[in-house]
Amino acid sequence: MTPTTYLSADDHAKISAAVAEAELQSAGEIVTILADRSDGYTDVQLAWSSAASLLALCVLVITPGFYLGLYDHLLADWGHEWTPRAIISLAAAMAALSFGVVFLVQYWQPLKFRLIPAAVKTARVHDRAVRAFRIGAEQRTMGRTGVLIYLSMREHRAEIVADEAIATKVDPQVWGDAMAAMLTHVREGRIADGMCAAIGKVGAIVAPHFPRADDDVNELPDRLIEV
């Protein structure tokens, strides 16, 4: 499946320029990632399908006469006898049908992401951001001054993760201003502007703690990674 592309080539260039400008203020190295989603959430899809299957069985237990009568009316011949085996077969069919229908309808992405609990989305986005940071930025700069700005579109969530040197001097709550600046634009559909706003804020936050040296070298790519 081809990844969803949210930004144009001009948007990418704009974000790269914002990173380069922000890094002129400090020794910090800013990495930006824009993700369509942070997880496939197959486990959540299976959980809802299993719940629907269980609910169908519970309904059959509570109102067996209705479903047995409906089956007789629609499908069975006159004189149909409900043996234990027949009842179990009907229950299995109802459970399987409920599971399959709910599983399949969740392939419609707007519904699928509405059914994912907010706490689960927050946790998955955080985990994915941390993994991306470890791969793309952690310990990849001489001064341990990498910062990742991560935006996950389907979940409507973002994360800012900083390397050890910065994390020891900047309280995590301070990144809230950068997050707020980004999300204000993103909610209005201006993703590139949001990323640029966050980049500028991050640069301003890092600069007082890690001023740029005259011999500073750009250690990480300035380009946005879109996945």
TrEMBL record:
It holds the Pfam family TPM_phosphatase. Keywords: Membrane, Transmembrane, Transmembrane helix. Residues 137-204 form the TPM domain. Gene3D superfamilies: 3.10.310.50. The chain crosses the membrane at residues 46-67, 87-108. It comes from the Bacteria. This is TPM domain-containing protein.
